[in-house]
Amino acid sequence: MDASASDVLVVGGGIVGLAFAWEAARRGLSVRLLERSRAAHGASIRNFGMVWPIGQPAGRRHDLAMRSRARWLELRDAGVTWAAECGSVHAVCEADEAALLAEFAERAAPAGIVCELLAGDEARRRFPAVARGVRAALWSPTELVVDPPRAIGQVAAYLARQHGVDVRFDTAVTAIEMPEVRTAAGERFTADRVIVCGGADFESLFPEVWAASGVRRCKLQMMRTAPQPGGWRLGPHVAGGLTLAHYAGFEGCPSLPAVRSRFAEQYSFHLAAGIHVMASQNDRGEVILGDSHDYDDVESPFDSAAIDEAILDYARGMLDLPDWTIAERWHGVYAKSTTDLCFMAEPQPACTIVGSPGGAGMTLSFGLAAEWWEAITRKRGLHPAAPMAGGVSLPS
Length: 396
Description:
Strand content: 15-25%
CATH superfamily of the largest domain: FAD/NAD(P)-binding domain
Distance between the termini: 36 Å
Radius of gyration: 21 Å
Number of domains: 2
CATH class of the largest domain: Alpha Beta
Number of helices: 10
Order of helices and strands: EHEEHEEHEHEEHEEEEHEEHHEEHEEEH
Shape: globular
Number of strands: 19
CATH architecture of the largest domain: 3-Layer(bba) Sandwich
Helix content: 25-40%
């Protein structure tokens, strides 16, 4: 690659930036990726590691999740990173939640979503992590688990090694004036197309665009147990009843409004803190538990012990873990569009801002990137790195 020029330059080394860089490289384009930190350390490494198609509404979003799933399995099969086909279980304890699962299961097959409704006894027989108080469960085989901190670094190394992507860490971009990109160290790069994937960083590049976007930051709290003893495995991801009111995949179920109304009375603290409870397990045996959603106090560096305790208390009602010892606690911050799946803008010709897909980066980023590059390639039959008047954005 020329010392300064490339077909595509991606700003940001999180999951969104990696996805857009990989899709460009797959199309034979020369790609440079600049990440301001020594390693990506934002929301892309502070999550469950869940690839979660079951939570996405039928149609485009579920299709994007399944495309992302295929990309993760491609990386696994190439020996790039660990990814397990664990599936998921929504384990619920109340009759109205069980009725909601039944409604979802009835609608799922015609929509092309594979799942199975289980009585509580059957769920416990098949999945020993499910607690005794669970009344019903929804099993889905499509979910994956990856280990985010390692996966993000491994994918970046793979892009450099296998696809010739010029990946540069400790390289903060300070200005873009197409086709030129300038860094804090005084370097100047040029590219036919620039894609800015800065996650929750709204201030560094094009702050006026972000200010007008309506995109919000969201802070979440999570925890990780010590490795479970004796090689014990969780099996599938496990989600509880509160999750039914969180993911858009359950919208449209007739019972959902009544369930939400009960939650508002019974779990007022949980709803105020945006808590819904899920669990995943990495290949080291650690169980990741969370999470909360705070749109009002994201700048605070201080986490709430009460939120952590509420998460753990609810988790004990749906999970049986051999060891509940918490080894690590953390919070993450991600960007969420209030109107679209993913905020996109073109502040300069052939320079595109791509926001994060609202806490579903591991689930949707690879699919979003593939869809976007396909749209670029189709547009008037142009070479995918060529500038285009008026720009291209994802369909709504």
